[in-house]
Amino acid sequence: MTMRLSLLVSLAFFALYGVIVVQSSSPEDWFDWVVSYGTISPFGVPKKVIMINNEFPGPLINSTTNNVVHVNVHNNLDEPFLFTWNGVQMRRNSWNDGVQGTNCPIMPGKNWTYYFQMKDQIGSFFYYPSVNFQRAAGGYGPIRINNRDVIPIPFPFPRDDFDILISDWFDKDYQEMRNDLDAGNTVLPSPDGVLINGKPSKSLHFNFEPGKTYRLRISNVGVKTTLSFRIQGHDLILIETEGSYTLKKNYTSLDIHPGQSYSVLVTADVPGTFSYNMIACTRFVSPVLCTLATVDYTGSTPALASSRPCSAHSPLSTTLARMGCLLIRSSSLMALGPGILMWDLDVGAARPNPQGSYHYGQINVTRTIVLQNEMAVIDNHTRYTVNGISFVYSNTPLKLADYFRVPNVFFTNLTKDRPDGQTLMISTPVIDALYRDFIQIVFQNKEDTVQTWHVDGYNFFVVGMGFGEWDESKRSEYNLKDAVWRTNTQVYPNGWTAVWISLDNMGMWSIRSMNEERRYLGQEVYIRVRGEDPMRLPDPRDEMPIPNDLPLCGRALPLWYHV
Ligand SMILES: *[C@@H]1O[C@H](CO)[C@@H](O)[C@H](O)[C@H]1NC(C)=O
Ligand SMILES: *[C@@H]1O[C@H](CO)[C@@H](O)[C@H](O)[C@H]1NC(C)=O
Ligand SMILES: *[C@@H]1O[C@H](CO)[C@@H](O)[C@H](O)[C@H]1NC(C)=O
Ligand SMILES: *[C@@H]1O[C@H](CO)[C@@H](O)[C@H](O)[C@H]1NC(C)=O
Ligand SMILES: *[C@@H]1O[C@H](CO)[C@@H](O)[C@H](O)[C@H]1NC(C)=O
Ligand SMILES: *[C@@H]1O[C@H](CO)[C@@H](O)[C@H](O)[C@H]1NC(C)=O
User: Nearest bound ligand to CA 147?
Assistant: First the structure.
């Protein structure tokens, strides 16, 4: 019955479009993953975590530009589950984005196969569970999109690549944390520790061959805490972030905000001792917590690494310390131009043409949307808002509601392009936007903590960052030449970050805080990127037809059987 139905449906689509969009000329990567619970006790307290094929963290997706990836996910948890592919652009394919606004979760005991192409992308990313606050239980893993052989990389080929996933850690069970948030009267406490690749201090060793250079792909996969990363005695040469090559720059330490990924080159060229600490520490919270891994030079007897992990970082609990930190940050911000990082204009990334051949600075911005984050108390519950609206999910994914024209699931009339300072509500807003428009989003942070924002389906140019209130005059300070093109940006306390986006990817896309506590409590909004006529089905060259094995749920379910 199901077979016949799906056959009919695919025939219907075939008849409708007259074409099938063939991607099968590209190499394919297949993964078969069983998602289940396991227990780990990194700091002595056992905690239920999410494992993939009994691994924690989960396996590497090692793919290449334009490859087609299939991930068959078997949900052996006792609750619904979804993965999302943080930073993979999912071109024409929000159907497989794996967030609650696009997909029905995979139910316990069921499986579903994600299908997406690494279209025109390179870089370092990660995946993680996107629903039910499961991100606080792990379930994450690294994604690499390697260059095709014909595209050279703009640095000497490293001896090896290492994926390094750093995260905050909470001893508390994720379901209890979720209940606390649902109860609305608490915010999460400071983390209980920091993990590197799922391990606590001194349990992880990396071997470097003396004289050789390694590429480290570092992602902050944690729930909410900014982390600093460094390797004792070694420079980190930044080369890539979230799919674009940066101008190479030396760092002794990198601040990595939740959701962000960076590639750095590290050369094993320090004379003297042969063991060094790799150090990840919390930032902007008190007390500062750190975790160490060890880098051992091969062919030498490992000496004891010195253990002064965090002398460089004072607890930033007081306003003064925080100010001091920000002043340093802001002067370097001004010295280097907005966004701190700059694109390497001269190199090719996924395609042979140089990154700088796309002159984003000369394109006219057709629309500016200011998204202002705030904390609010609504009905005695702690909530977080965007332009006064705290996002809640309905049980029908927005993408399916849009496709099947189910009314009153989401509302395109709520989020205004400017915050009005009056609105305060809990609802399900969607920003309506036109395919191929070129827009600006300004993230305006009204709070005194660092925020991180992410847009699914897109990379954006980080053209400006500053303190205070954004207004049109800030444009004179923008970097319109070589701003970095990425998918997550930080927004400094009481500051703003302006990003420019070419809306060239049709679909329903999540714009969200990468602080999972804030996202869970409402700091999210969707953007529907559609053709001029919302009643017309998109051309499959602009958006893939609905996959015929897509799980359905909510109010999208009964309608299906009337197709
Ligand atoms: C990842 O894929 C690349 C390109 O196919 C290959 O050279 C490399 O060895 C792979 N790495 C791992 C860890 O599988
Ligand atoms: C579920 O997994 C089986 C094999 O384990 C596979 O044959 C089937 O296609 C999968 N179903 C979906 C909907 O992906
Ligand atoms: C980074 O610093 C090291 C010395 O500390 C120097 O040899 C190297 O050239 C620098 N690299 C860049 C890209 O600035
Ligand atoms: C941008 O707008 C200006 C003035 O409205 C116009 O002169 C210019 O041609 C436009 N540029 C592009 C690339 O459309
Ligand atoms: C909110 O909390 C206060 C104090 O705890 C209580 O007096 C009040 O009745 C609550 N209001 C609602 C709407 O629950
Ligand atoms: C938005 O539209 C809905 C109907 O789709 C309507 O009920 C609601 O009142 C509108 N809200 C505003 C603020 O205009």
Answer: 1
